[in-house]
Write a structure and sequence with these properties.
This protein is α/β, with parallel strands linked by helices. It has helices spanning 5-63, 70-76, 92-114, 120-152, 156-185, 193-202, 242-253, 290-301, 315-319, 324-344; strands at 208-210, 215-222, 225-232, 257-267, 277-281, 306-313, 350-355.
């Protein structure tokens, strides 16, 4: 036991602190977590409001509407889509595709009203900028929900889980914040790697639109083969319906098609190099299901090999302006596609090459 006065004081303070932490430590930690979340929400609110203001300003400047679009845009930020029932899986993809088409048409109609004097390409860019603003608004409201819920129920577990996830959530929010500038400026983004590969393969060949798909294709000769090169219509912010496009092309060309290659950006694992090119099997496409299913079904029905080439990227790289590492990898991806075509087909064959991704900034 301590013998000096100082020792006794230290012993007493440590004992009191230990007793306090034993009974009130969790409450103190909850207060720290709550403070961290509140600080993040304050920052997130400013970011979300700034993105919305930027979108409103772009709509006014480019679309020149005959009314103030501010409130209409703010109301539209909470627009939602309800997924179809999946307890009876028969036909669920068709119903999902139908709902996604309705959603896309609703966005097109809204932008036509908000920005009547903007070109169709500018309206497409404003639509994807709206998606980014919606994402930022949702992140703010989602975190606020759990802060209020955790505080109301005095549930430290909820506060802890949110606080522990703030680092990752901040990265996602920053990505969408930076994406706004690329969308509004109409610049290529990382997800445009697939369309850019298709653009380079087409080498100036005239593009034809596949009706009702917001997708275009070109025919190009390559070492005795005929390439049917597919991508979303650009340079506006569109992803098109590449699955529908592949399906229609293979049905029109029949047995002449001997290979389908999809090229897309894919999320890398931590430690992987950005722009690394990898070959695989299957449909490289990140849609909710309908377009991927159509590519797979077309390949299966016509017994055509389905190969994939991906360019590794982080989420931040995928939705923001195209980084140098990705842009530098595009020519190598084009050569990889050519190598696969040489190895897997012969002169006289037809090959479908689908550049999957957002064609913003890619004509």
């Amino acid at each position: 036991m301590p013998s000096s006065t100082t020792g006794w004081i230290i012993y007493l303070l440590v004992t009191v602190a230990w007793i306090y932490l034993m009974f009130y430590g969790q409450k103190l930690q909850s207060m720290i977590w709550k403070s961290q979340i509140e600080s993040f929400l304050k920052e997130m609110k400013a970011v979300s409001d700034a993105a919305t203001a930027k979108l409103i300003n772009a709509v006014v400047q480019r679309g020149k509407p005959n009314m103030d679009p501010s409130q209409r845009i703010k109301d539209f930020l909470e627009f939602f889509t309800i997924e179809p029932v999946d307890r009876d899986p028969s036909g669920v993809l068709k119903r999902l595709e139908y709902l996604l088409d309705v959603r896309e048409n609703r966005f097109d109609q809204e932008m036509a009203k908000l920005a009547p004097n903007a070109s169709s390409e500018e309206q497409a860019n404003l639509a994807v900028a709206m998606e980014a603003a919606m994402a930022l608004n949702f992140i703010y409201r989602y975190i606020r929900h759990y802060l209020v819920l955790g505080t109301k129920q005095n549930n430290w577990m909820i506060l802890m889980q949110v606080a522990m996830s703030l680092g990752q959530i901040k990265e996602i929010a920053r990505s969408y914040e930076k994406a706004m500038n690329a969308f509004l400026d109409g610049k290529p983004i990382g997800d445009g790697a697939g369309p850019m590969v298709a653009h380079m393969l087409a080498a100036g060949a005239p593009m034809q639109e596949i009706e009702g798909t917001k997708t275009v294709f070109a025919k190009q000769e390559f070492e005795g083969r005929t390439l049917l090169i597919l991508k979303a219509k650009g340079p506006g912010g569109r992803v098109g319906k590449p699955g529908e496009g592949v399906q229609r092309l293979i049905e029109s060309e029949g047995d002449k098609v001997k290979l389908i290659i999809t090229v897309d950006a894919a999320l890398k694992l931590e430690g992987d190099n950005s722009g690394e090119i990898v070959e695989g099997v299957g449909a490289a496409i990140g849609d909710p299901g309908p377009e991927k299913f159509k590519i797979e079904e077309a390949a299966r029905t016509h017994n055509v090999p389905l190969l994939a080439i991906i360019l590794k990227e982080s989420m931040d790289e995928a939705i923001t302006g195209m980084r140098k590492e990705i842009a530098d990898a595009i020519p190598a991806a084009v050569e990889k596609v050519k190598q696969v075509i040489r190895e897997q087909t012969k002169a006289g064959d037809e090959v479908i090459v689908a550049g999957i991704g957002n064609s913003i900034g890619v004509a």
